[in-house]
Write a structure and sequence with these properties.
about 40% helix; 2 domains; 14 helices
Length: about 325
């Protein structure tokens, strides 16, 4: 449930200071991925900012989620998705308490601030669907009773793009609920050497991060993002980009309106992170791939070709006119 307590309003400069402090702290654990962490922070700062990290094993997907939780001082729970995982293992359920002679609610791991759904595509669609209500309505319904989730609530899901045996592809309805899909990528040689150096100095696998942005400050930062100005021409640009995906000849199903909202939210968060009170077209273009690519379904005859969602988004970006925003509008 969203808190109603009054908070001191941050200035744009204070917003940037806290954002940089958060990223600096996380970089103590995640080496050389500042650009990726900045985009993930924009997703965390967006209401409804659930995140899908898709990349090869061992590239710090789990570490990133845990690091954000530690640096923000938020509750963190991890669920390892497996074929035998049941919906009740995520949401919890009512059990009979013989001492009280009544059924009581035992809350599952979904009742947290940051939930890591590790290898989410290894669980069955029935189990995956247990997160749908939580991701959209921020609540869980059990035995006809509805329980609100803690605020803020963010799902960070991971999946491995190279292992398909024993996996269940995420249904389109669930993919659509992720504001962003992003990969981490391998570190370069210098970054990997730095990782080895830090491990040698720590003499321990565990990485301990400090809470540098309190929960109340983070909530206020989210509220500030909602005040970022978006020019009507930029709103039109977002709509045109998404509409173009629906008419593209290589696309069977284009982006839903959630794609438009995702671009709007991410662009606002990015503008705030740059100490701006208004969105620029480049803010929208920066997130087009990450916000729209996973919402496309290509034509079946292209599945065996080299055409990808990335190619389609590139074509869309190149074919839609970029608005010119007059100076001084902010």
């Amino acid at each position: 449930m969203m808190p109603t307590d009054a908070m001191i309003k941050l200035t744009p400069e204070q917003f940037v200071f806290h954002a940089r402090a958060l990223l600096d702290e996380i970089e103590k654990a995640v080496v050389g991925k500042r650009a990726i962490l900045e985009r993930l922070l924009a997703a965390f700062l967006s209401n409804g900012g659930h995140i899908l990290i898709e990349d090869y094993p061992g590239l710090a997907k789990t570490l990133i989620a845990k690091s954000f939780a530690d640096a923000l001082g938020l509750a963190f729970r991890r669920i390892q998705f497996t074929p035998d995982l049941l919906p009740g293992d995520i949401t919890g359920g009512y059990i009979f308490d013989s001492r009280m002679n009544e059924f009581v609610l035992r809350k599952g791991p979904v009742f947290t601030n940051i939930l890591l759904a590790d290898e989410i595509n290894r669980a069955s669609p029935k189990t995956q669907s247990a997160l749908l209500e939580a991701m959209q309505e921020y609540q869980v319904t059990l035995e006809g009773e509805t329980a609100d989730l803690p605020f803020p609530f963010v799902v960070v899901a991971t999946q491995n793009p190279i292992e398909y045996e024993g996996t269940f592809p995420l249904p389109e309805a669930q993919l659509d609920r992720f504001i962003i899909r992003i990969g981490v990528g391998y570190p370069d040689a210098d970054e990997e050497r730095e990782m080895l150096h830090r491990r040698g100095e720590r003499k321990d696998d565990a990485i301990r991060l400090e809470t540098v942005v309190a929960r109340d400050v983070f909530v206020q930062m989210r509220r500030m993002v909602e005040d970022i100005y978006v020019d009507p021409d930029i709103e039109g640009y977002i709509v045109d980009l998404v509409a173009k995906t629906r008419r593209h000849p290589q696309v069977a199903v284009g982006c839903s309106p959630r794609g438009s909202l995702a671009l709007l939210k991410l662009a606002r968060a990015w503008a705030a992170m740059q100490a701006r009170t208004y969105v620029l077209p480049d803010d929208v273009k920066l997130f087009a791939q990450a916000a729209l690519g996973h919402r496309l379904i290509l034509q079946p005859n292209l599945w065996g070709s080299k055409t990808s969602e990335r190619d389609v988004i590139d074509e869309v970006l190149g074919s839609v006119s970029v608005p010119v925003i007059p100076a001084g509008h902010e």
